[in-house]
Amino acid sequence: MKIKYAVSFFLLFTMFAFGQADRRDQIKALKSAHIDAALKLTATESRKFWPLYLDCEQKIYDIRYNKIRPLNNKLEEKGIDDLSQKEALLYVIQLENAEEEIFNLRKKLINDLKPVIGPKKILKLKTAEDDFNRILLNKYKGKKD
Q1: Best label site of 39, 75, 100, 105, fewest CB within 10 Å?
Q2: What is the pLDDT of residue 22?
Q3: How far apart are CA 77 and CA 71, in angstroms?
Q4: Nearest partner of 52 among 115, 130, 114, 109, judged by Cα
Q5: What does the pLDDT read at residue 53?
Q6: Cα(115)–Cα(48) distance, rounded to whole angstroms?
Q7: pTM of the full predicted structure?
């Protein structure tokens, strides 16, 4: 377990050493390595798992980038306090719809992964994703200080 965290921290430090270029790709590579280490997939599982997982992650990114981000930008420009109740409701509905799309994608991924890696590894995947996000957030916090 300590080795897994040591490798993750090493990879995170390496990522930040490369600067701003291709940050998203670097984070994706680090996340993949972290998940791979946590799940210990067989070759057969790996061949089936990664296409499903990466496709879902890309779709979620697209929703966040193309739907949620523009809404947040508009809210920031206009200011929440300056919205009418009707406008605020419209924003809430749009955000709910985008979040529901993400939820449905995650749900579909879990259903697709059940026969591929089984329920235990699905739980390990969730734990690995949470661990990675926590490591990344802690690294980000440390860099801002």
Answers
A1: 100
A2: 80
A3: 10
A4: 109
A5: 97
A6: 10
A7: 0.78
